[in-house]
Design a protein that fits this description.
heterodimer; A: 3-stranded antiparallel beta sheet; 48% strand; B: 152 residues; 3-stranded antiparallel beta sheet; 2 helices; 9 strands; elongated
Chain lengths: 106, 152
């Protein structure tokens, strides 16, 4: 979709788990906000599904509504992950936009 | 007369097709729970999602959630639990126009841990419901919102 990925992934390995944090650039419009200049409602535009894969295996699927904050942030903990493992995070919104990003755990 | 009627049918058809095209992807996208995320009160949502299930209150679900949220548009939450085999976590905010915030599925490879940020319209209970071994458990915590945050 965009040249710069909308997804940022940070991973940090601890002794007994690996913390994965992700930040997605997305307006998460509820459809109830008004454009201040025109007074018209800004159409709803929000992420509906987010998938989180570890080495191509789906480990979490998140369904969300308009209640998730603008520029959504999520964190997960993988029980056992090692350096070189691949994390894939993808999202899809109500207007059909989507993005995917891969990250190798350091 | 003929043209107007023809135009009328044409317009109606186009409009119908357009509405359908708008409505269809919303319900078909990766079996997204369109009905669960609709604008309803909390009771019908709970009834729909957990019909016939008892929601046991459990103190084994731990929420890291502020007691007072200064800005309702960004309320951080961290959920952990000592209940085994949790496979689904629901977050709901009682008085939001759309009470269901999100639903997470967790594979056994993940620890029972979710961090997220969500919006709260006003002071109310945040309800977290987890599903483990065919049982539902819930915990509620009140969050005071000083500045309502559905505005983005």
């Amino acid at each position: 979709m965009a040249k710069v990925s909308t997804i940022k992934i940070r991973s940090k390995r601890f002794d007994d788990h690996t913390l994965i944090r992700t930040l997605i650039a997305h307006p998460m419009e509820t459809g109830r906000n008004k454009n201040e200049e025109t007074g018209e409602f800004i159409p709803a535009h929000f992420i509906q599904t987010l998938t989180f894969k570890h080495n191509d295996k789906l480990v979490s699927e998140c369904h969300m509504g308009v209640g998730v904050s603008k520029n959504p942030f999520f964190s997960f903990k993988i029980k056992s992950a090692k350096a070189g493992d691949k994390i894939t995070i993808s999202w899809q919104d109500n207007l059909g936009y989507r993005d995917t990003k891969e990250q190798i755990i350091q | 007369m003929h043209t107007t009627r023809r135009h009328f049918f044409k317009k109606t058809l186009t409009l119908a097709a357009y509405t359908l095209s708008l409505a269809l992807p919303k319900t078909s996208v990766g079996n997204w729970l369109a009905s669960g995320f609709s604008r309803q009160a909390i009771e019908p949502i709970l009834a729909e999602l957990f019909s016939g299930q008892t929601l046991q209150t459990s103190n084994k679900i731990h929420l890291k959630l502020p007691k007072v949220a200064e800005n309702g548009s960004v309320v951080p939450i961290t959920i952990t639990s000592s209940i085994d085999n949790i496979d689904t976590i629901y977050i709901l905010s009682e008085k939001n126009p759309v009470p269901l915030i999100a639903k997470f599925t967790l594979a056994p490879e993940l620890e029972t841990y979710i961090g997220a940020r969500f919006k709260m319209k006003e002071t109310c209970d945040v309800i977290v419901i987890v599903h483990a071994d065919h049982q539902y458990y819930q915990i509620r915590q009140k969050v005071k919102v000083t500045l309502g945050g559905c505005g983005g």
